[in-house]
Write a structure and sequence with these properties.
The complex is a heterodimer of chains A (109) and B (113). Chain A is mainly β and 109 residues long. Helix content of chain A is 0%, strand content 52%. Chain A has a 5-stranded antiparallel β-sheet with strand order 1-3-8-7-6, with no helix packed on it. In chain A, β6 and β7 form a beta hairpin. The N and C termini of chain A lie far apart (41 Å). In chain B, strands 2, 4, 5, 6, 9, 10 and 11 form a 7-stranded mixed β-sheet that branches. A 4-stranded antiparallel β-sheet of chain B has the order 1-3-8-7, with no helix packed on it. In chain B, β9 and β10 form a beta hairpin. The chains are: A mainly beta (109), B mainly beta (113). At the A-B interface, β4 and β5 of A face β5 of B.
Chain lengths: 109, 113
């Protein structure tokens, strides 16, 4: 089955710094690469996604980059703010997705 | 617009009791449906997914089962709960042929005592 790994498991940054989270996967048939954000006690919500025919996508302060050859994709958050503090999950796949274990991001004011 | 409902929001059940959690989706047809479980401070574990009425795929061989009696209804059940069944249960849906963004329900927090 699909093997999904996320790194790091915990990330602490100063407000204004950048944060990068990496996701590696094993299934070469994966064609959809989303990142979800989950705030404490709430449901996960999509923040950005990318499809296999695109190498990079940006939406204001967040971006996702994809390396299909190496089977990994990364979430980049620039100019971090305290409200970015949450758990972030990657979920590569297609209609069936396997979620990574999550990265807990702390942004210190 | 589409909405997803889950109930109950919280549930406290004794070990050995049965379980029934319900999820319904409005505003879309033939969605893919999913059940996940999240233990405290952990990731999302995919339990079941369904691509159509009566079509259920199981990802974990546990004492849980799922059913899809109607197009937009997904039910998670157990005949006898275990302590290890405690967690945050999330239902989600996605568009049948993509894009595959998943939309999550508000979740049910289950405590087995």
């Amino acid at each position: 089955g699909e093997n999904v790994e996320q790194h790091p498991s915990t990330l602490s940054v100063q407000e204004g710094d950048s944060a990068v989270i990496k996701c590696t996967y094993s299934d070469s048939a994966s064609n959809y690469f989303p990142w979800y954000k989950q705030e404490l006690g709430k449901r996960p919500q999509l923040i950005i996604d990318i499809r296999s025919n695109v190498g990079e996508k940006k939406d204001q302060r967040i971006a996702v980059t994809l390396n299909k050859t190496a089977k990994h994709f990364s979430l980049h958050i620039t100019e971090t703010q305290p409200e970015d503090s949450a758990v972030y999950f990657c979920a590569p796949g297609g209609f069936k997705t396997i979620f990574g274990a999550g990265t807990r991001l702390f942004v210190k004011a | 617009s589409q909405t997803i409902h889950q109930w109950p929001a919280t549930l406290v059940q004794p070990v050995g009791s049965p379980l029934s959690l319900e999820c319904t989706v409005e505003g879309t047809s033939n969605p893919n449906l999913y059940w996940y479980r999240q233990a405290a401070g952990r990731g999302l574990q995919l339990l079941f997914y369904s691509v159509g009425i009566g079509q259920i795929s199981s990802e974990v061989p546990q004492n849980l089962s799922a059913s899809r009696p109607q197009d937009r209804q997904f039910i998670l059940s157990s005949k006898k709960l275990l302590l290890s069944d405690s967690g945050f249960y999330l239902c989600a849906w996605s568009v049948a042929r993509g894009p595959y963004e998943q939309y999550f329900g508000p979740g049910t927090r289950l405590t087995v005592t």
